[in-house]
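Case study 2.
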Amino acid sequence: MSKKWYFYSSIAFIVILFGSGFKPYNFENLNWLSQTESEEVFHFTVPTASELEYRNVIFPQTGKTYAGFKQALAFKESQGKYHLVNSFGYMGKYQFGMGTLRTIGVRDSLYFLQSPSLQERAFNALAAINKWELRKEIEQYEGKVIQGVTITESGLLAAAHLGGAGSVKKFLRSNGKRSIKDGFGTSIKSYIHKFGGYDTSHIVANKNARVK
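Prediction:
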């Protein structure tokens, strides 16, 4: 009898011990952490091993050099993507139309998209042609202020890349009243301002420039 009593007493003691030690937990509603239906959901990821390898890469500071001019213009045009074709059919890092490419000797659009070297040479050739087309305007207007924008050679060359040398001439001769825009609403004036002050002096004006 004493053994049975001891056995059942031990079981009761264990049940009481564990029952008092594990109490139900009341979860608190943290309002600052809640989300309403109108709030945006954010998703976070951690960098991959390959991404971590590049975390300390330092990109060269090209400043207002010709390389800096090309880099800034390319980023505006395509974010620097050689293979990009936009909704209007403009291609590559600097967004060339096929008509413009033909004038500088490029006829194979597929090869053009696959060749970064060809795209760089095409940009140089077009810059030389635009500088020749705008040589008188550069001499006449450089340093002047039109519609609050200081006119510089690099700004005019960038604007000519956007809308053609003829559009730049119309802007200048109308004292800024005729600011032509492209299909995305980007104006000649905005390019003259955004890309002003770069050193494009070494570009040799050449109306017959072609891709070699």
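The CA atoms of residues 5 and 143 lie 107 Å apart.
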